[in-house]
Amino acid sequence: MKNIQKGFTLIELMIVVAIIAILAAIALPAYQDYIARSQVTSGLADIRGGVTAFEELINRGSTGATNAAAIGLNSKTARCSSLVAAGAYTATSGQTITCTLAGNPKVVGKTVVLTRNASGAWNCTTTLPAADKSKYNPGGCA
Predict the structure, then answer these.
(1) How far is CA 46 from the centre of its chain?
(2) E strand or H helix at 126, and its extent?
(3) List of long-range contacts for 126-129, beta carbons under 8 Å, 24+ apart
(4) CA of 10: how far to CAs of 4, 22, 34, in Å?
(5) For the segment 28-49, what is each residue's pLDDT rounded down to a tens digit?
(6) pLDDT recorded at residue 102
(7) HSE-up (13 A, CA, CB side) for residue 5
């Protein structure tokens, strides 16, 4: 009587492991880039909320201290190791809100900055290296 083969042979299992290893080698760097991009976008979202409060204080002509707490932001968040608001409420431009990024090694220590221009628009910039800007910058950020 013939024995019926049950299960997989060692060669078949090794082929499956090799295929999984190749797929992982391709997927992990792409996933790391995705995480870095999402962390930069999250840092921008953390400071975006302060724009409305900053504008309100500018329009009222406030003279108080310019800091993150004055515009309703925490001094740090999960994605921003520090949040800094600067610039006089009475100036027509130059006010900034800055997030120093934390998290992924590809973006840690870099900053996302919202800067107010003379027409009252807030522009986003980052301090990422030029080669990384196309990969990690959120839409609308220079």
Answers:
(1) 9
(2) strand 122-126
(3) 126/40, 128/40
(4) 17, 19, 36
(5) 888 999 999 999 999 999 999 9
(6) 94
(7) 4
| Of 22, 48, 27, 16, residue with least CA distance to 124 | 48
| 52-69 confidence digits (pLDDT tens) | 999 999 888 888 888 899
> Could you tell me how far CA 78 lies from the centroid of its own chain?
11
Task: Give the model's confidence band at 1: pLDDT under 50 very low, under 70 low, under 90 confident, else very high.
Answer: low
Check if the beta carbon of residue 72 is closer than 8 Å to that of residue 49. Answer: yes
- Length of the chain, in residues: 142
Nearest to residue 80, comparing CAs of 51, 34, 39, 132?
39
